[in-house]
Here is the input.
Amino acid sequence: MKIANIETYRLAVPLIKPFKTALRTVETAYAVVVKISCDNGVVGWGEAPPTVVITGEGMDSIEAAIHQVLKPFLIQQDLNQYETIFQGIHTLLVGNTSAKAAIDMALYDCIAQQCKLPLYQYLGGHKNEIETNYTVSVNDPKEMGEDAISYVRQGFHVLKVKVGKDLIETDIERIQEIRRRIGNHIKIRLDANQGWKAKEAVRAIQKMEDLDLNIELVEQPVKAWDIEGLKQVTDHVETPIMADESVFTPKQAFEVIKTRSADLINIKLMKSGGIYQAQMINQLAEINGMECMVGSMIETRIGISAAAHFAASKKNITRFDFDAPLMLAQDVVEGGIIYNGRKITLPDSFGLGISNVQKEGDAANVKQSKMAN
Here is the structure.
């Protein structure tokens, strides 16, 4: 099975409600969609959302990386030699992890289809159903409390709450209001998105512990580069700390694990450059007794399907953050993972299970890429 062609086009799908974090506000989900066609008729799908504040990539740079560097290398490559192909992807290009991830997931889609297996089974097949949290955007405490109770009423048992944008006292007010509205039986995970300094994070988390706000974990409290600060927070609080933006590569994961700078790692395909290196990160963590979560950017059901297949395939991945498609005003994907409230079912169809991606529509502003051929 050889790669015959690689095409890209652009998607822009509005969100139902703006998504706000300490780093950015998103009102529209943009993405570069990748379609890989093989000489035997197999088609694989991938997606790369531009997340400049995290990966440094925009729409133009994603497409340039794919068409100017990765596509010339990949055309006519034999997917039966996929180890050489994945090694080449990560050797040819520094950074550009979202572009790599889109290509990576489309290649895995093709490989699993060739093997006549759903991707999660090809990767390990640990389970075929997982449960996602739902994210509460950072707003004033009253609005966050209202959002939180709304999501709980929709059936979600775990909330991921964004903080780190304003004063710590305001963040504590936010969590107090949410806890007041939803009670103590719902799990709360905090994500500061690098919004605190180490000493601030310690003070904030210790205060939340003293107030008995029952926080399951705190994700990326400090700047991505501040591994010492991350360790300082981890060492001085009882609440588990999870590294996110601090870990893109297996090497970075190794440093966090070796120094015990965090208790958990959040793996995202857009950071790791796809499933190939995401597996390495998870294996490093598992060997050293550290559980992982798999999360996502603001993506459609293409990218989330790939992430969910990977996450469901591994025992060591115990937490799942795949709510992004539920935030979109329109679903542009046919096939893929199946949502039933908080529960996600992995399809029995081969590969990612995606049959088509919409290219035109009133609700989704879809722009054909000039570099498609």
User: Anything to note?
Assistant: The radius of gyration is 20 Å. Confidence is low (pLDDT under 50) at residues 361-373.
